[in-house]
Amino acid sequence: MDFLVSLAEGFIGLFQEGAAVFVSLVTGIVPLLIILLTFVNALIALIGPDRINRVGEWAARPGLVYYPVRYILLPFLSVFFLTNPMAYTMGRFLPERYKPAFYDAAVSYVHPPTGIFPHINPGELFVWLGISAGITSLGLSIVPLAVRYLLIGLVVIFIRGIVTELMTARMWPRTDAVEATTTAY
Question: Where are the transmembrane segments (predicted)?
């Protein structure tokens, strides 16, 4: 009989713990996300969508000097202002040869800034909260970890953007050759 009582208490305890986590989210992170989303939308309205779109056109210019613009600045601004998954649409201003690399950079950056800017990817917030729980349990600040994660993310997306652009450039002639042979029939 004690076994059944313990099983029933454990079963309901699981749901009580889930409810406690839910209440902590509703009173903690949800209001923060709403305020951040409101701020970012207001900032976009103040800056103007046309100006933000012009950044994408600027990043599409050819040359090595535009690599950091294309694979650091543009993904960062896209992810910050448009959030996940809308950030990927900023690639529409780039020529076809740059789109795969921009997408790779942008999709790789939707998680690293979540520790500082949770509005970017609220779905990934649970991953960040799980990682940062170990730091907070030690009584340490999570801010240094969040800043390092954001900065390392910028380095990684820059490298990924360049590598993907080089791979795309190498594969592009093969795609043209396949298209030429299929249209010949």
Answer: 20-48, 69-88, 125-143, 150-172
The angle that helices 29-47 and 49-59 make with each other, rounded to 10 degrees, is 80
Q: What is the pLDDT of residues 7-63, one digit of tens each?
A: 888 888 888 888 888 887 778 777 877 777 787 778 778 888 788 777 777 888 888
Give the Cα separation of 118 and 155 in Å (integer): 20
Q: pTM of the entire structure?
A: 0.66
